[in-house]
Amino acid sequence: MTTEAIDRVAYRQSRARRSTLIALLSTMVFAAVLLFAVTSSPGWPRVRDSFFDLRIGWDSLPALLEGLWLNIRVLVVCQVLILIFGLCLAAVRTLRGPVWFPLRALATGYVDLFRGLPLLICLYLVGFGLPGLRLSGLPTSPVLLGGLALVLIYSAYVAEVLRAGIESVHPSQLAAAKSLGLNYRRTMRLVVLPQATRRVTPALLNDFVALQKDCGLISVLGAVDAVRAAQIQAATTYNFTPYVMAGLLFVALAVPSARLADWASKRVGIRQGAL
Amino acid sequence: MTATAPVLSVRKLVKAYYGRSVLDGVDLDVGEHEVVVLIGASGSGKSTLLRCVDLLEDIDDGQILLDGRDISDPRIDADAARRAMGMVFQSFNLFPHMTALANVALAPRVVHGSTRHDAQERGHELLARVGLSDKADAYPDKLSGGQQQRVAIARALAYEPRLLLLDEITSALDPELVGEVLTLVGELAASGRTIVMATHEMAFARDVAATVCFLDGGRIVESGSAKQVLTDPQHDRTRQFLRRFTGR
Known about the structure:
Chain A is an all-alpha fold. Chain A contains 10 helices and no strands.
């Protein structure tokens, strides 16, 4: 290596060290200011006692975790059902031919309705309205009904994401598949859907991160999930710390999914950049 | 023309997009083992003609006969008719989520009902034919433009089509990659393939084509042997067009 090259490397390393140092320093100053601003506020001692009581938080943890386990089970089952139902909706919406008009119109109406309906209202209507019909064989468990409402709403979102993916596949790919003699069904299955799902994976994972926390809303129907458990704990201890704990648990649950979504979109980006 | 019945006959083909006429009464006969080259400015209808023949576009009037059978009849199974033809596109249109081998083996496996093993064997055979045996497991984005186009040609040949349609297949390639693709097409022509090809490569047309057709404004203005059309054009517009390539 020439002396110029060594010099260049040394200079760049010194700049990098400098950047790291500045970042560290500014983070520390920022954190100190924030901490000071919060703890020096007049109401801080009371807020600390009622929201950040470590002992109460620790004691409520078993009940919260038991509730969270219900959330996770609901989440996993709903995710699978949403993917299947959403894919069916998206496929129906892209069907061509006059025979399929009623199905297509139905799917379009469904997506319009459930994308516009607030989740909370859907939960109330399904959770209290369906059992109110007193039909035999209909589930009355708040967990099942809450899960049903989540599936109804989220399928509409996921269907739209998948449809966008399907329509983003370039017409030249369809022409190539057609020219090989593939019929419409095979073209969809072998050429369009594999490319579409790859492209929309980041958006889908993002929707599922949103679903993770919305799973907590089934508590409004009376299901004892993490949110409901926190409510019970808060009511018995006259303290809000269980809510904070439950919130932290949901965040901890979401972080891996969020990183997974980041990783997936980066991978798609690299692949598309290389194309 | 050849003595036997033509493989492809296009009769008074008319095609318009939103009221704008693109093909305005095209007649074309392609005999067995014949290579027909379509030349003409961008927008003259070369690509549209090829896409209509491959039934990728609905035609407005006229007939397309493949081995004497009217494939432009909307009542026939278009998917079945397309299987008798192979098409190669300007921008390759390989399936990006499949390896080179999977691209080539797709049609034999799912359309022509070969077993997975036979289809793969056929795929390897074809990739060897286009000189890409070592790229079987490569995805399209890892191949050069010329290699991608050779895979696309192999894909179009996968089930021995009666007719090969080549739509400006070297237009999207870097100049130094054009040669490898044209050499391959020349070999296919020499082996007796029936080919219709739209191209701007005049030297190639002169060397390989039996017939050259000059399209202008959606009509075949002039057609004849390559030598006659390219060196002694009869029509004014043909002369104007060729002047841009030869500098005369």
